[in-house]
């Protein structure tokens, strides 16, 4: 007898709870501390986005801090450069990913090697030969170690004027080099095989395994998934992922759910997650406060965040000042299971202060009767957040 596949109704409250559990934002110290906690967090989340904006601490450090209360920047440095448990590559953006997942990225590296990369189409073969020769001869290097570049015009806003830097970036995407260390945003490049101590890189994962990897990564870190959330900025993968979802539903390994407010957008949950976590309220997460990065996995998919939390986050760094609602670099504030505020912060490193630019109440925080308690709890977390900002 075939299994029933009629979607089970799922409230937003249930869905938020499942997602917060999957993101490990409902637990005080879900991954422990130290470099091994960094590796465990990146492994569980699947990736941690990297970004250059430094109004407050950069987002890769911020995302890890939100899940590792004792996080130190040196822990990420050791995980990347010494333990080599994480490495940098492109997911939906430049990210830290688990080194054990390397083989899932090899096909993309080979494609770039075979077809080039549209961002670096202007890289000349002689520039690539030059940087590879320097790496083989002198060892790991930064762009500052290359002093004989003749600067060229940029082809787009974020591109370097240094041909050697563009050649290194292309070699990064093709998998010939990796970023072995970061000092701030200064990257040290190293031959991939030498960094990991390989004679040759791992074999590429077959396409079917990559599809399963994408689905399993989303289920682990999102709990409740949709085709859009699994394939965020990766539309070409949707067909294969959808076929795998349908197969798992038929086998009873996934359950379709009708998420409140989602309309026709389909969502799925693992049955054991639905039973174990969806109906459990309360716990230590009720009292937790998280000041989140705008690049946090809970926020980066804006439409999903708005669907689950009834909060539409706006990233306004590139919005004209007069049109900003929340501020230049507003951070969503999660209290328990609700996003209740967006606070625009700036770190004054010279005077060792965390500056409050603007505080906006949203969601449950919009109710005046709740603000006094929320404000007290958020201000307590702000004290800890400031210490993190100014440390090291």
TrEMBL record:
Superkingdom classification of source: Bacteria
Pfam families linked: AlkZ-like
InterPro entries xrefs: AlkZ-like
Identification of the protein by name: Uncharacterized protein YcaQ
Organism whose genome encodes this protein: Bradyrhizobium algeriense
């Amino acid at each position: 007898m075939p299994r029933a596949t009629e979607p089970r109704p799922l409230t937003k409250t249930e869905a938020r709870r499942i997602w917060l559990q999957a993101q490990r934002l409902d637990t005080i110290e879900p991954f422990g501390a130290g470099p091994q906690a960094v590796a465990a967090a990146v492994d569980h989340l699947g990736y941690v986005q990297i970004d250059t904006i430094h109004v407050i601490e950069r987002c890769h450090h911020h995302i890890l801090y939100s899940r590792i209360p004792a996080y130190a920047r040196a822990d990420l440095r050791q995980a990347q450069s010494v333990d080599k448990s994480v490495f940098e590559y492109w997911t939906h953006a430049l990210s830290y990913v688990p080194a054990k997942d390397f083989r899932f990225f090899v096909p993309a590296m080979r494609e770039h090697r075979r077809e080039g990369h549209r961002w670096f189409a202007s890289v000349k073969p002689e520039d690539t030969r030059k940087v590879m020769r320097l790496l083989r001869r002198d060892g790991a290097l930064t762009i500052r170690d290359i002093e004989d570049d003749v600067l060229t015009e940029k082809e787009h806003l974020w591109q370097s004027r240094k041909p050697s830097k563009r050649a290194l970036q292309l070699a990064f995407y093709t998998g010939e080099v990796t970023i072995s260390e970061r000092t701030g945003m200064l990257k040290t490049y190293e031959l991939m095989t030498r960094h990991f101590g390989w004679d040759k890189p791992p074999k590429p994962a077959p396409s079917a395994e990559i599809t399963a990897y994408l689905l399993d990564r989303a289920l682990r870190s999102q709990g409740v998934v949709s085709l859009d959330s699994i394939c965020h900025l990766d539309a070409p993968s949707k067909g294969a992922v959808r076929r795998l979802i349908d197969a798992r539903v038929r086998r009873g390994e996934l359950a379709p759910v009708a998420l409140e407010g989602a309309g026709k957008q389909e969502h799925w949950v693992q049955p054991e997650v639905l039973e174990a976590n969806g109906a459990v309220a309360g716990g230590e997460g009720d009292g937790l406060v998280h000041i989140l990065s705008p690049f946090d996995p809970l926020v980066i998919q804006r439409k999903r965040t708005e669907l689950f939390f009834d909060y539409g986050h706006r990233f306004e760094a590139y919005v004209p000042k007069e049109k900003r609602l929340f501020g230049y670099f507003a951070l969503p504030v999660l209290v328990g299971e609700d996003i209740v505020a967006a606070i625009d912060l700036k770190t004054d490193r010279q005077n060792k202060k965390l500056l409050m630019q603007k505080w906006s109440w949203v969601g449950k925080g919009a109710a005046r009767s709740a603000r006094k308690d929320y404000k007290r709890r958020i201000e307590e977390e702000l004290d800890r957040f400031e210490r993190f900002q100014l440390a090291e």
